[in-house]
């Protein structure tokens, strides 16, 4: 399969048709390159706040309500594009009201026109306050025509027990948004570690660039990246593809499900299998005072 992962800039739209044209152009570019799976970033849907105007964008609660109100239409557009082109799309996540709280939800759209979702479990400080977004499970594993797919939204990929619970996944999708280089590198390092531990392929997408009218997304630092275990059948550095930082566009890589199965069964190491040894009861920690 061919994967396309986005370094995605947020735009200010005058009308819904402008957003529709942008998303369609991005999808068609990736399809023209032969892509089977497209991955958009965390909170990329926040650009929909522009359709509610600058006053809504200037208010945290109003901006969340404005974006959430448009997500059914956004999902319908994604479903139509996925079905029309015979591809799978992880749409950009958005804050969604669920059961009296706001969650960070990423919708996944299949080539058959199905839509499912994964919510983020662990919130960053910024999401806790001022955004007021809460974690929401459960973790999920999607059986798809492309293989088993799991999603860790941004900060979630920095907690290995989450991806461990999804260890059957062949692909771990990591949509992210980070305002600084430090955050970008934390996500990238986390995604690479998860690929090593689970002997899978991890895919990072990012928002990039300024968006000054929305304080919550005033600036983003990121790049697309597709990572793998550094073992038989994969690049020795564990990088299938990486895009330049803060340059909008797609990053592409060819991924072989057979290569993932092979490295798990016959690779030079067996991180995925040997995990249980690290989780065994090791007894009390022996403390040795050498002062």
From TrEMBL:
Domain of life per record: Bacteria
PROSITE patterns reported for this sequence: CN_HYDROLASE (PS50263)
Domain CN hydrolase: 1-257
Pfam families, per the entry: CN_hydrolase
Name of the molecule in the record: Amidohydrolase
